[in-house]
Amino acid sequence: MNVVVVNNFDRMSEEVAKIMIKQIIQKPKSVLGLATGSSPLRVYKLLVEYHNRGADFSGLTTFNLDEYVGLSKEHPQSYRQYMNENFFSHVNIKPENTFVPSGVTEDPEEECRLYEQSIKQAGGIDMQILGIGSNAHIGFNEPGTPFDSITQVVDLSESTIKDNARFFDTIEEVPTKAISMGIKTIMQAKEIVLMANGGSKAKAIYGAVMGRITPEVPASVLQLHPSVTIVVDQAAASKL
Ligand code: GLP
Q1: Residue 205 banded pLDDT, cuts 50, 70, 90
Q2: Whole-prediction pTM value?
Q3: Would you call 137 a catalytic residue per the annotation?
Q4: Strand pairing partners for 64?
Q5: Measured from the CA of 200, which atom of ligand 1 is nearest?
Q6: What pLDDT is attached to residue 225?
Q7: 200 lines ligand 1 (CB under 6 A)
Q8: CATH assignment of the domain containing 54
Q9: Structurally, how many domains does the chain consist of?
Q10: Range of the domain at 157
């Protein structure tokens, strides 16, 4: 595990964008696993700037980690909408090569099965980008999720619902379920890059980097992956 400590959010974003750009240059047909949340916002901005300077993203395929159950792709807080607004609509990735689970499918179990299948058909994920929840969740895999889980419907924990309430008008509007890639799905990526900033992530980062490896701290599983880079600002690294 390679831990990179930087000064602040901007430096974290630059470092992660640099790693992703290197991947895209080395393999223009990369399959990227993408994350949402506030952590990667500036990374997407930097990638859009890179595209505006002439970089071609038309060979990429992307798989997002998760989506809220119950939110349509047009819902302003859906992760599909987030990805369109912050990244996809500003670059030349082919829309049909951008995968985000559907939160409004009639058969969520089938949606999960097809998602796993699509990842396999694409040849697996070359580089998975991750944020981390304050309870150390990755994707929406909450504490207690088995390490052998694949894409599935998950219940969000109280703390995650509270953390994410800032994006909704009232806490009642925050969905209580999501479709999330599983821990095993994430661990099958060839390379993983996790980013975190701010003191509210310090405990989760300690658990991910130095804690006991246990499903109670989902990100601790990353200690078992052969190629992980963790990019954190000083506040998030303060317990290391
Ligand atoms: C959300 C997402 C995660 C994300 C995490 C952190 O619940 N499902 O993929 O990494 O929370 O979010 P943020 O970056 O906004 O702190």
Answers
A1: very high
A2: 0.97
A3: yes
A4: 34
A5: 16
A6: 98
A7: no
A8: 3.40.50.1360
A9: 1
A10: 21-122+133-177
